[in-house]
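Hey,
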Amino acid sequence: MKRLPLIIFAILVVFLVIGLTLKPKEIPSPFIGKPAPAFELSILSQTERFEPKSMLGRVWLLNVWASWCTSCREEHPLLIEFSKQKLVPIIGLNYKDKDPEAIKWLNDLGNPYDFSVVDAKGKVGIDYGVYGVPETFVIDKSGKIVHKHIGPLTPEALNKDILPLLKKLNS
């Protein structure tokens, strides 16, 4: 009976050690290899609407962002530089934001997106399994999600994971 607390403590330590070895940025997405969820949303500051099916036949990125997101500000200069290469279309998913703040943010910091769509209630983000902003999805020519990056993009993630994948998908 006196050993029970020690056994419980030992089990908790084992779980803690296992948890510390996990990489939270590498949470597997159940959407990898599956069609990107369909939606139809308004394009920020325009009257047109966008549906992912209009991108069939093209590789593209969906970057989830918000003006209130400090990590989005961190990745933004990298997105600006990446967008200048014009390798693939970058569609922004403006998540749970207010249009005036989003427009001001893009005007102040620059706009790396071909355009951004408005997900004011966060429903599309939920459909895509977004844990938090920013997140970036690589979507192939057939409309399937082939990669998900959680958190701000970094030069390492871009060069090691995303760029080689885009080259492969576009070849």
